[in-house]
Design goal:
The chain has 320 residues and is α/β, with parallel strands linked by helices. It contains 13 helices and eleven strands. The strands form two sheets. The protein has an eight-stranded parallel β-barrel, surrounded by nine helices.
Length: 320
């Protein structure tokens, strides 16, 4: 299983994210994923720069790491034709290191353009149509489309990379697994559930990569690590069906009011115990994931986390 690093836009500013990407590559991470948000999950996180500008800078500041959006929503805040242009440009800037991770989105970020948050069935309809438009643009030439949700009028990608941009699709249940198995090159998930992979395989995804994501709260003082995880990540274990619907940081704070620090510490490895992280990753490898991106909780911890990862964590993970 390849081990990646998360550029988490919700907790760091754009210059810090580029610095962190450089540090992650130097530490030996295999790839980096970046969140694409308009809002942080909680006020305490405090950031949300434009991921695509950060990606352009990271593509130039790094040389080796693969890059991926985790994930971009092409159904509301962005038109799919615009997403295709952005993805093709990043693929060129990164010399073929980019994967376009797509998903049906969260109310948290998509509400900003107005019009209400559609129900999940409509979101999946929109996602399918959006992926079809993006794929058609990646094929080259002019694209015209009159669909149920989108129109495209004589669109074309004038700067198209020689290496086609792979498309990843986030899954959480039967509908999204079927969509991903049919249309995606990569499966994306935030839960280490083997059933997701089986559904993905049944729909046509057999043999394709699958990418997961797992938070870690690193600190030499475990109590401080637990405090930080509780402050900034107590929302994490609510589940996708809840997280996709809540409208803003205040709602996430209210929904996680009764989550206790010890409950967070049970769900997220906290401190500097390498074996605890290794043990936690086994759920992902056992579920068939080929890639796992780690989230280091806390914007000020990134340099120390990368140093720890280089010296202790990554060697242990690669040793099995």
């Amino acid at each position: 299983m390849e081990i990646g690093y998360t550029l988490m836009c919700e907790q760091s500013g754009p210059r810090e994210l580029v610095r962190d990407a450089i540090g992650a590559e130097a530490a030996g991470f295999d790839f980096a994923v970046i969140s694409d948000h308009a809002f942080p999950w909680l006020e305490e996180q405090g950031h949300s720069p434009y991921a695509w500008s950060v990606l352009g800078a990271v593509a130039q500041a790094t040389e080796r790491m693969a890059l991926m959006t985790y994930v971009t929503c092409p159904i509301k805040r962005y038109h799919p034709a615009v997403v295709a242009q952005k993805a093709a440009t990043v693929q060129l800037l990164s010399d073929g290191r980019f994967t376009l991770g797509l998903g049906a989105g969260e109310n948290l970020n998509e509400h900003i353009t107005g019009g209400g948050w559609p129900p999940v069935n409509t979101r999946h309809e929109r996602l399918r149509e959006a992926v079809e438009i993006i794929s058609a643009l990646f094929d080259g030439g002019y694209v015209n489309h009159r669909g149920r949700h989108y129109e495209v009028d004589s669109a074309r990608l004038w700067d198209l990379p020689d290496q086609r941009v792979p498309i990843g699709i986030a899954v959480s249940g039967p509908q999204s697994c079927a969509l991903a198995g049919e249309l995606a090159d990569v499966m994306v998930a935030v839960q280490p559930e083997a059933e997701l992979g089986r559904r993905f395989d049944d729909a046509g995804g057999a043999g394709k990569p699958r990418v997961g994501q797992m938070p870690v709260s690193f600190d030499r003082d475990r109590d401080r690590a637990i405090e930080r995880a509780h402050e900034q990540f107590r929302w994490f274990d609510a589940g996708w069906k809840v997280n996709a619907e809540l409208p803003g940081p205040a709602a996430f704070a209210a929904a996680s009011t009764h989550v206790r620090p010890e409950e967070v510490a049970e769900a997220i490895p906290c401190g500097d115990d390498v074996q605890a992280v290794v043990d936690a990753t086994r759920a992902w490898s056992d579920a068939g994931f080929t890639h796992l991106a780690l989230i280091a909780i806390g914007r000020d911890t990134q340099p120390a986390f990368c140093e720890w990862a280089e010296e202790e964590l990554l060697p242990a993970l690669r040793a099995g």
